[in-house]
Amino acid sequence: xxxxxxxxxxxxxxxxxxxxxxxxxxxxxxxxxxxxxxxxxxxxxxxxxxxxxxxxxxxxxxxxxxxxxxxxxxxxxxxxxxxxxxxxxxxxxxxxxxxxxxxxxxxxxxxxxxxxxxxxxxxxxxxxxxxxxxxxxxxxxxxxxxxxxxxxxxxxxxxxxxxxxxxxxxxxxxxxxxxxxxxxxxxxxxxxxxxxxxxxxxxxxxxxxxxxxxxxxxxxxxxxxxxxxxxxxxxxxxxxxxxxxxxxxxxxxxxxxxxxxxxxxxxxxxxxxxxxxxxxxxxxxxxxxxxxxxxxxxxxxxxxxxxxxxxxxxxxxx
Amino acid sequence: xxxxxxxxxxxxxxxxxxxxxxxxxxxxxxxxxxxxxxxxxxxxxxxxxxxxxxxxxxxxxxxxxxxxxxxxxxxxxxxxxxxxxxxxxxxxxxxxxxxxxxxxxxxxxxxxxxxxxxxxxxxxxxxxxxxxxxxxxxxxxxxxxxxxxxxxxxxxxxxxxxxxxxxxxxxxxxxxxxxxxxxxxxxxxxxxxxxxxxxxxxxxxxxxxxxxxxxxxxxxxxxxxxxxxxxxxxxxxxxxxxxxxxxxxxxxxxxxxxxxxxxxxxxxxxxxxxxxxxxxx
Lengths: 318, 281
Fold this sequence. Notes:
Distance between the termini of chain A: 12 Å
Distance between the termini of chain B: 18 Å
Strand order of the largest sheet of chain A: 1-2
Largest sheet of chain B: none
Number of helices of chain B: 14
Strand content of chain B: under 5%
Oligomer: heterodimer
Number of strands of chain A: 2
Helix content of chain B: over 70%
Shape of chain B: elongated
Structural class of chain A: mainly alpha
Order of helices and strands of chain A: HHHHEEHHHHHHHHHH
Radius of gyration of chain B: 22 Å
């Protein structure tokens, strides 16, 4: 296990290094470079040269990269001239809120998707299965912003039960106003349930066809007991991997939800930065969400190995 | 036509849902590309006098904030959504397939390096990456197609690489080497053709995803600039429209996106069942 852990962490570090290089390359992809982006299109060549010299943008690229990486590692992600604030400050304010949204949204999605998928698998090709498949398939094909708009129309405007926009403040303050969180979290959960329950269904169906299930049935165990005692554990461990793999997708979903509901999280910050072409913020956010994704998938892989010793041995033996 | 192709077509035709999906997609394509011949509307000029007209005679689906006919706009807007979806999927699949085939066929350190790059780029959440690219480049239809392709070649790359790893050790591919054929020939003539069914299925889902992405980008205000219309952009009025009760600006465009994406996903499911060797009868 120790060797596997080391190997997997090493792999994650390599991936992070490449991510940072890709993001750095994107920075230099900018038309006119960062100086043009910050000083604006009317800056004189002289001003640009001065700016480049002051900020070290006239150094050789590899040197710039190591300097940028060094700063990033120490939490210095640059300065947003548009918002007149260090990028790290902006992130410190928004990341906890997004974690709240993504965390609760994913948790609820998992708690609903698992029973839904199992019910579908155990009643395969019956009416319940077809009905649930239709619902999840439609949700899966739905743009999440449109789903959010419809939920607002129905629950906020027509029925007036819930507020149409998210609360502000720190995550704790947000939790004190749970009504405002319902619609954003519901939107994120619904699209996530749609994709997760399809996997749970497929994974459970596969397990139900295994020999051990037939043996258990031959021994006289009832279906409910077979599912609970034998199938569940085997069918659900892939879901842990799925969680890790879906993280970039869920984060993208949270960006859309934040935009629809004016939820003041990292996605909202990123969206505003994209419209204002605020490059330091764009770069900082991309770096942070990517690091988050890499760490998330690392944790998912470790969790999977922890749940399934076969995988652990297999990877350890390689 | 060989037996395998014929069997696959028959299996696809037996799948009722996929055939319905195909029929719906054909109808939507006709609606978008031939519809404007029969329902001619002015989508370029604005007329504030006619803004926000509810559905009625002359405008079966009402007019939008600039007085343009919504039904006509759905037709024109669908063109961009469908074209972007199709082209982005084709470009992404082509790049991904070549990349994955080279990595898998080469194996060893080349494979490791190439695939770590895929691991890295795939860790950058797609929507963030694509908003970033869209913010860098002025969003025109061409740049958006390239931006979407740039973020979606990774999955086909992984799929093809996996198959190429197996194929390179099969006798008929080894034979190329024995007979003096170069790696280029082995990859293009023998490895890639054998991944076609995987690629076809994945490309179909890519079209659906790309349509959702372009809609989302346009909703977020980073889609193709006006006067180019597309379904997502028609929804960018968002909340304001809802509060004013202009339902005809929210439901028709959204429903068309959902129906199109459902249809394409159904086709993809049918293709997967028809082409996968496990379900072959």
